[in-house]
Amino acid sequence: MRKIAPNFKEKYGPWAVIAGASDGTGRAFTYRVAATGINCIIIARRGEVLEELAQEIRSQYDVECMPAAIDLSTSDAFEKTLEAVGSREVGLFVSNAGSDPNGSHFLDKDIQPWMDLVNRNVVTNMRCVHHFGSLMRHRRKGGLLLVGSAAGYGGSRFMAVYSATSLEVSCRWGF
Predict the structure, then answer these.
(1) Alpha carbon distance 24, 88 (integer Å)
(2) Hey, which bits of 45-150 come out as E strands?
(3) Which of 93, 99, 97, 98 is CA-nearest to residue 145?
(4) Which candidate, 136, 156, 123, places its Cα nearest to that of 92?
(5) Engineering a disulfide at 12: which of 27, 41, 91, 130 sits with its beta carbon 3.0 to 4.6 angstroms away?
């Protein structure tokens, strides 16, 4: 497959982190970013799925693609993300991870699944945006793409916490 947007790599830099890359929109972002010639660090919980995607990306595009199986709902997800990135210059951060696996009323579940949801959708995301955004601002180069859910605008009685955590996303910044 041919590469697109030859100046994309100049604008954003050599590496992208794509969180929530294992399927759907995140997977599509991975293909799109790789097609521009940017190397990818792909993050999601399912390591086997990520490894298959990384192999597909490497075989179709002349880029590096590193899978990192990280559960973004855990309290150490940010640290694990930084460990996976290492000293690489990340010029694009795509936050596409977010979900509500609970599907219940707030008081019908223990608090921990709700804390996991807030960690995944807000805390880990916020820490990554702050970290990578600060480096991009310093370099005056890079971009942040945060993907949200329409649930933040309408809500649902079975998705109260998810709806609340969906509003802080849905934006894009470039430096």
Answers:
(1) 26
(2) 65-69, 90-95, 143-146
(3) 93
(4) 136
(5) 91
Burial-class residue 133 by CB neighbours within 10 Å (0-12, 13-18, 19+). Answer: middle
Residue 107 CB burial class (10 angstroms; 0-12, 13-18, ≥19)? exposed
Q: What is the value of pTM for the model shown? A: 0.85
Domain boundaries defined on the chain: 8-100+123-149+169-174
Q: Is the Cα dihedral 34, 88, 10, 170 positive or negative?
A: positive
Q: How far is CA 39 from the centre of its chain?
A: 15
Query: Helices 124-139 and 77-85 meet at what angle, rounded to 10?
Result: 40
The pair of structure tokens assigned to 1 is 């497959």
CATH code that applies to domain 8-100+123-149+169-174:
3.40.50.720
Amino acid at 109: K
Q: Is the pLDDT of residue 5 over 90?
A: no
- Whose tokens are 């955590």? That residue is 165
pLDDT tens for 74-101 read: 999 999 999 999 999 999 999 987 666 7
Tell me the C-alpha distance between 66 and 11, whole Å: 21
